[in-house]
């Protein structure tokens, strides 16, 4: 019998071996990864749900998860046409079923014809199904008023996250003072900080201006970059527009400034545009980085390297579970593009049902087709309800003393600033907890409402926030906002 | 106007900037990644297909892709029951359609009930849908004759590849002489070498014994390990059983020896068991590492760290496009498990349709249910056809002078050894090409058959192989095998 590294275990008298993989011997970069959107507070929410279902008494009857942009989980209905086509693609025998509309059938046939053996069960090319990439390119051209799009620049992805991580992976390199740095906004969506930690790249923070509706100031970009150049090699600039968690929608002028800045400072631009249809505020409009780049003329459109990301998970469809997405890549070096394609081939392909769904998003029913009216009705209803909820959330939160909320111009979240009394800050600090984590944890225990503390996204020191989705059904959202209000007052009194 | 790093472009008189991201400045580990299964030979096959479709004359009328285990693309039909349930889950209005069998409806309802908002469009928990993990655990218990399985040890994944890469990610650490090393078989499935290159870990090769049906010798494991200890820190041992590309099925005795070896040498065991239903040869049987580990008693079952991987892509279902899979993790340190769960949360969740499909694979129709007979008929037909094709492939290839093929005991590939004349070896070497790449490229150009050269999987120096799937329809497979035969004779004559 072999016991190369055995040690005697007193308790059961058996030989036991030290584990190969322990917290001390595992990959140290993985340990640095943090992802607040599904962090400890969500784990506790799941526990509370279980306790409730087991009949345990709580000061609430239901856990409301407003921590994540998960539209269907909050009751949003899928687009009928999309699901009809997916059912037809899954089980093509339904193509002879007369209850399905003809346009759904023809979309399904064209998707299946692009699949090996006419089956969604076949691998697709690693870059994605060719006809889907062509449809994506035509969609981008329509969206951007005719700016040309080459399907060879389109890569289908497993949700937008997959594309973002892949692009960051290409960019990281170097050690010590030449280690690659990537600029991200603060507050940010924590996928960015998590990926950078895992890849061992330097996170360069630039702060959005909360006083000006979370807008982006070029002078702040410059400050962050100049400081970072002293200790790393800044290579890329990430922008989230419409903003997550901040909900701001960038002006055209701001985007132009950002592009000029990236060109001047030689930064690869990454534009996270997954909320491109989620724009609610009057006077706000979505401008894609691609369109603005091309309208700035060849000096920019032929040189600035840009990757932009989209997804099936947000906008009016909210199909998170299918993990569909694409990225468009502009001005990438051909050799690097070949490396990217090779890298993607190792994982074989993005999920084909997600690719099919992406195809429907970029090629929805057209006027004159049987499903057009129903599609428009469903899409409009979802988007206008979201706009109402964005407004309602801002209004109610701003009535609360000690909560101050910027307008939710777009995306799916409010990110209000909260005043936390000094006594509470001290109690949290003594417990080794961030004060806004302490606040959100208390709110969860007392009200069943699950929010994400601002510290999970980053914020200026000494300020506190939480992120709350605007996704709950309107009646539930009202209850939720009232409960937040009550909780905040009680919490403030308790710690004053 | 800003031109921090502008240079004058003579051709169009415009300022152009050097790219931020070039082959010289990109992540160097990505450049080291290779993945032959979708390498240059497949790119050329796709080109040839396009040329054919454009009417270009070729010495063949069709490209046959025998490079990848993509069953549906080769004409294999999906299991009806699985697709019925997926259609019902995609478009639940079909639950009132009387043409769907009741058991399909009840499976769909139970999957939807486990989804947030009863929709596959919701995110699932990052570890996977709880009820699916429970079904996986019960499947493993049945498969392993009652050895207990805890659903908390099950992680649903985006295909098996995702799980394998994630586990390797946890294991890598260290620099220089303490850099983590991972033992992989040669020949191997190139996901392993690709992932290790990307992660910057040391690949430790152990050679399978071609003379003994590609079996695994413990003495060879020991040799490889002892040598590796001089320059790295060996941490894990990867096994593919049934073998890819080699098709061998490991004996129970061999698995016991491997487990003893891993215990003695303190290696984390990774068992890639995605072909667990693909066993054809008489006298061969699939033994899971988990089952053998537990039958070896607590000295092993309570200490050896094991991750095993399964997928919806292979076996009788062949649903590659859905990217479904799971891993079971045994004896993992609790703190590491928490890190694993956190790491997975960043990517939110595996695709929900793939999770649904995995659920159906582990919980198929039962005796007495309306879909049972059809399911058994379809499954049996697919598996017995595969068994015939495995035998046919071996037999025909072994009739060819200069080709020698081990029995395809399991999985989906033959990996015959080929004799390449010295003159051809020289011509290839002069072109800077691997001789078997030269051989396969010529075969593709002359016959339209797309195979993968053995050099893409690794082989003993001076030996040459190719991997060919056994998936083409029997009539097509016969034509393909005849063409390979003809080509080999012609090639041998030409270079003799």
TrEMBL record, chains A, B:
UniProt key word Transferase: yes
GO BP field: L-alanine catabolic process
Pathway involvement of the protein, from the record: Amino-acid degradation; L-alanine degradation via transaminase pathway; pyruvate from L-alanine: step 1/1
SUPFAM superfamilies named in the record: PLP-dependent transferases
GO molecular function, one term: pyridoxal phosphate binding
Keyword entries, A-Z: Aminotransferase, Pyridoxal phosphate, Transferase
Cofactor: pyridoxal 5'-phosphate
PANTHER family assigned: ALANINE AMINOTRANSFERASE, ALANINE AMINOTRANSFERASE 1
Name this protein carries in UniProt: alanine transaminase
Organism: Nothobranchius furzeri
Gene name of the encoded protein: GPT
